[in-house]
Amino acid sequence: xxxxxxxxxxxxSQIILLIFLGLLLGACSKSSTTxxxxxxxxxGAMTASLNGSNWxxxxxxxxxxxGILSITxxxxxxxxxxxxxxxxxxxxxxxGTFQLTFTGNSGRVSLATSPTDIRTYLTxxxxxxxxxxxxxxxxxxTGTFTMTVKNANDPTDVxxxxxxxxxxxF
Length: 170
Known about the structure:
mainly beta; Lipocalin; 11-stranded antiparallel beta sheet; globular
C-alpha cells in the first residue's frame, strides 16, 4: 500500500495536529457586539471547484510564521454539515510555486455531514497538486491552487480540486 512515514509516531502526531486545527477553526465564531472586531486571522476568501461543483467561503484563517504558511477555508452549507480546505506550505519566504505531496507541503479537504460522519481527503501522492502564492506580504497572502486528494480510509475515493483561489490576512 502506501509507506507514509519512516517513524510510526509521526503520522499519528500529524493526524492529531490536523484534527486539532479543524476543531480550532470550527470553534471560532463571530462576535455579536456592535464594536469592531479585532480578529486578525479570519479575513479573506477561498473558492474552488470540487469534482466540478463550486465551493466558496469567506471564513478563512491564514497563518504565516517561521517560514510555514497555513491557509484554511471552512464553509457551513447547512445543518450540521461543514466543509474545509486546508493548504500547508513549508520553507516559504516569498511568493512562488509550491508542489503538494503528503509530507512537507500538503493539502487536505474535510467533509462532515454530521459530527460522526467526517471524511478526510489528503494529498497522498508525490505531485498531488500545486499552490501558486502570487502575493505574500507581512500582513496578507493571495494565490491559486489545484490538487487531487484521496480519502484517508479509501484511496480510491478521490476529489479533484481545481480553479482554487485564496486570500487572507495575518
